[in-house]
Amino acid sequence: MRGKLLRGLRYRQRLARRNNRLAQREDAQAQKADKDLKQKPKAKKFGKKSRGKQPGAKGMWRTTPLVPNITMAHQPGNCAACNAQLEIAASSKPYMGYYVLELEKQECGFEVICQLHHYYEATCGCGHQTKARPGQGAVSVVPGRGKDLQLQEYSLVGPMQAALHR
């Protein structure tokens, strides 16, 4: 009986030593891998370019300026402070403007109409300066969404968002 106990005890001790050695090897390998990742810079892949404009390359946009078919003047009607009627001088210049490209359906296809919207500002007799601003619509609130959506006349659109699809 005593011999069986000694053999069982020795077996457990051997298993414990072996498990300790395996754990030490794994720790050493993990530390070596971390050290290698920190020291070695990633190799550059020559001949493999991603699609699109490459980093550092010169950008390119429209080669010709847009020519508007219609220029729309937006002027403030009343003072925002005292609600008095405002008069816009003929020599006043817009403080802001943007282009709108609209598709109009024709008999055989579509026509692209370019509109230029100019926004003016005026100073009232009370001294307040009122600016005409693009219209804003209803706000869409969804719980959990980071930012609420709002319909607006004025928005910036990237080239991929403005693509025309069949």
Describe this structure in words.
The chain is an alpha+beta fold and 166 residues long. The chain has one helix and seven strands. The protein has one helix at 2-39, and strands spanning 70-74, 96-106, 109-119, 121-123, 129-131, 136-140, 149-152. The chain is elongated and about 115 Å long. The mean pLDDT is 79.
Q: Any descriptors?
A:
166 residues; 7 strands
Using the CA coordinates, give the radius of gyration. 35 Å
Approximately how much beta-strand content do the residues carry?
A: 25-35%
The number of helical elements comes to: 1
Distance between the termini: 88 Å
Give the strand order of the largest sheet, numbering strands 1, 2, ... along the chain.
1-3-2
Q: What average pLDDT do the residues reach?
A: 79
Largest sheet: 3 strands, mixed
Shape: elongated
Order of helices and strands: HEEEEEEE
Number of strands: 7
The computed structural class is alpha+beta
Tell me roughly what share of residues is in helical segments. Answer: 10-25%
Contiguous uncertain segments of 5+ residues: none
Would you summarize the structure shown here?
Among the domains are: 1-37; 70-135, no CATH class. The chain is 23% helix and 25% strand.
